[in-house]
Amino acid sequence: MHDTESGIDLDAEPSGEGCAECLKAGGWWLHLRRCAQCGHIGCCDSSPSQHATRHFRETGHPVIANFEPDDAWFYDYRSRRAFDGPTLKPPLFHPLDQPTPGPHGKVPRDWEDLLH
Q1: Distance CA 114, CA 102 (A)
Q2: What confidence tens digit (pLDDT) does each residue in 70-82 have?
Q3: What gap in Å lies between CA 72 and CA 110, rounded to an integer?
Q4: Which residues in the chain land under pLDDT 70?
Q5: What does the angle CA 30 – CA 99 – CA 104 come to, to the nearest 5 degrees?
Q6: pTM (2 decimals)?
Q7: Segment (H or E) for 82
Q8: Residue 5: what pLDDT?
Q9: Which residue in 9, 15, 26, 42 is deepest, having the highest Cβ count within 10 Å?
Q10: In this structure, are residues 31 and 46 in contact, taking their beta carbons and an 8 Å threshold?
Q11: How many other C-beta atoms are found inside a 10 Å radius of the C-beta of residue 20?
């Protein structure tokens, strides 16, 4: 199912196991979000770089899903509301052995002071 109006594509696969931009730049994140339309994995708004919201602003893809284990939810940037959504194509969250914050070896010791 691909519905650009809803902002959800059930066939879109996650772009990876971590924030695409943070991994490329050697950065780090607190939590991960998945674009429900294209599968882009970005970091949350508490993370230093806020790549999930930047992805929305750059692409107009309006819906994200949480990419953390044991906490399934969607968020629509247009309405600014969270909601229960359909089951996306797996994987539904990052690997369980991946630390939060992550990725391993990139998180500074004072990470809590650097959150938004």
Answers
A1: 14
A2: 899 999 999 999 9
A3: 28
A4: 1-4
A5: 95
A6: 0.94
A7: strand 81-83
A8: 75
A9: 42
A10: yes
A11: 17
Q: CA 96: distance to chain centroid?
A: 15
At residue 3, the pLDDT reads 54
- What tokens does 27 get? 């950065």
Q: Could you give the CA distance from residue 55 to residue 42 in angstroms, rounded to a whole number? A: 8
- Measured CA distances, 45 to 90, 91, 97, 104 (Å): 23, 22, 23, 20
- Give the whole-angstrom CA distance, residue 90 versus residue 15: 11
Place of tokens 């914050």: 101
- DSSP, collapsed to helix, strand or coil, labels residue 114 as helix
- Could you write out the DSSP letters of every residue in 23-75? HHHT--BSSEEEETTT--EEE-TTSSS-HHHHHHHHH---EEEE-STT---EE
Sort residue 86 into left (φ over 0), alpha (ψ -120 to 50) or beta: beta
